[in-house]
Amino acid sequence: MINMLRRLFGNQPGVPRSADSKPVYLYGLTLYYLPSCPFCAKVQWALVKHDLAVTKKHLMTSAGARDELIHGGGKPTVPCLRIQRNGEDRWLYESDDIVAYLNKEAQDAAR
Ligand SMILES: N[C@@H](CCC(=O)N[C@@H](CS)C(=O)NCC(=O)O)C(=O)O
């Protein structure tokens, strides 16, 4: 049913794709996260809901991630979405702001 709707209307934000479909990978985005962080879980749920994927760096186990975050973004707080696109290099910290950014990406990907 979802696939039929997709054929008719295209990919709509908020409508999960079928289980066998591949997430849309968003280039230039890196999510710094910790599995134990509820704000990170909120962001990861937004990715799942929209069937999007970004590069992810576990703050404790990805080599150099913590240093990158502190030196680039200015603080060790997670979640943080690093946006490297069109010459821009931005560190977006608040989970609500990150979810809003991903919602917009999902809308653009569905066009
Ligand atoms: N208001 C922030 C809260 C983020 C937050 O408190 N993250 C915690 C982990 S759950 C953290 O990184 N704390 C360590 C720190 O801020 O240095 C958001 O919504 O993203």
Quick tags:
Glutaredoxin, binds glutathione, alpha+beta, 4 strands, 41% helix
Please, could you describe this protein's structure?
The chain is α+β, with helices and mostly antiparallel strands and 111 residues long. The chain has a domain at 35-111: 3-Layer(aba) Sandwich (Glutaredoxin), CATH 3.40.30. Helices cover 41% and strands 25% of the residues. It contains four helices and four strands, in the order αβαβαββα. The longest helix has 16 residues, at 95-110. The radius of gyration is 15 Å and the shape is globular. Glutathione (GSH) is lined by residues 37-39, 76-79, 94-95.
Summarize it.
With 111 residues, the protein is of the alpha+beta class. The chain is built from 4 helices and 4 strands. Helix 2 links the parallel strand 1 and strand 2.
Sheet-strand content, in percent, reads 25-35%
Instruction: Give the distance, in angstroms, between the N- and C-terminal Cα atoms.
Output: 20 Å
> Largest beta sheet, briefly?
4 strands, mixed
Give the name of the CATH architecture of the domain at 35-111: 3-Layer(aba) Sandwich
* Count of DSSP H/I helices: 4
Could you give the order of strands across the largest sheet?
A: 2-1-3-4
Q: Would you state the CATH class of the domain at 35-111?
A: Alpha Beta
Class by alpha and beta content? alpha+beta
Bound molecules: glutathione
Overall body shape: globular
CATH 4th-level superfamily of the domain at 35-111: Glutaredoxin
Helix content: 40-55%
Elements, N to C (H/E): HEHEHEEH
Give the number of DSSP strands. 4
Radius of gyration: 15 Å
Q: Ranges with pLDDT <50 over ≥5 residues?
A: 1-14
